[in-house]
Sequence to fold (383 residues):
Amino acid sequence: MAERKTIELGYEGVPTDRMRMNVGPQHPSTHGVLRLEVELEGEIVTDVIPHIGYLHRCFEKYAEKMTYLQLIPYIDRLDYISSMNSEWPYVMGMEKLLDITVPEKVEYIRVIFAELNRIANHQIAVATFGIDAGAFTPFLFLFRDREMIITLFEAASGGRLLYNYFRIGGLSGDVPPTFKEDCLSIVKQVRNTNKEVMDLLIYNKIFVERTANVGILPADVAINYGVSGPMLRGSGLDFDLRKAEPYSIYDRFDFNIPVGKGEVGTVGDCWDRNVVRMYEMEESCRIVEQAVAQMSMEGDVLETIPKKIRPKANEIYCRAENPKGELGFYIISDGTAIPWRVKARGTSFVNLSVIPEISKGYMMADLILILGSIDIVLGEVDR
Fold:
């Protein structure tokens, strides 16, 4: 096993001075309005304290005043990179509360859009991480392909970032007639570009040297912190809710769960987390292909949407495998048209909490890569 890239602090019998430095909240490498209070000894990180709350969405307070349907646009604004995925566990939970079974066509469209949004999320994650590491060209390639996905989302929902597309019991509207052809075109383009990115970035010698054995997250630490998604799977654990607790129609598809293997360094390092996202895009392409082949374009996506949403007094927790990890909503109904309480389990919030654990002993420049490898969105961190 490769040695962990940490540096011993100070010299025996020689006192050392430590400095505290702010990184953010206005800083491009914090990927949003996040402030890191970093303690340094020279260039070596001895402690990191994340300070959050600069992008507080007040989501859970809004939930006490909005109807169940009005809440969906606010969910979009949590992880605004993966809005399609974020809406899904909420509407699934509501459908269970209301005992609604949605048509198969709706299930297939939800799966396809969720997997396409997973690809779009990982394209941003890998592209911006490449910029953090000093590589600009892959960013252009990946964002070019992401536009194809966003254009398809726009054709269905009218939005390019915040979609408000999933509905309790269905969807806000049908997909365009060329939906299947568009999906297959996206899959083909994504695969071609990903091959280029693997050669140009992931296996680039400079990139490997910068990311291997940096920010190592052992599996037991990941579990103790509640880490999920590519962060957890990068540490070698093949836990994915789509397999562990299949929801919707995921049990109909054949796909694998990529995990970190320490191919160029140590299991759970920054390189592993990035390569897991690259392989997950291929698995999403496989799911999209299978779903497109199985689904029928016939059917009404609005037929099971209730005219009145007033669930009986009850409570439910519903979770799904979002691109960044497990996103869940705990919904409490008191029998009225407005939820008594909606609590969101924000993936980015939980995953960010592990940064002090995996940053100590590394260089300051490595801290930027470690933060980038977590793939956070501050709207979901602050909620």
In short: Residues 1-7 have pLDDT under 50 and may be disordered. The chain has one domain: 56-359+371-382. Residues 104-132 form the longest helix (29 residues). The beta strands are 19-23, 35-41, 44-51, 166-167, 170-171, 314-322, 325-333, 341-345.
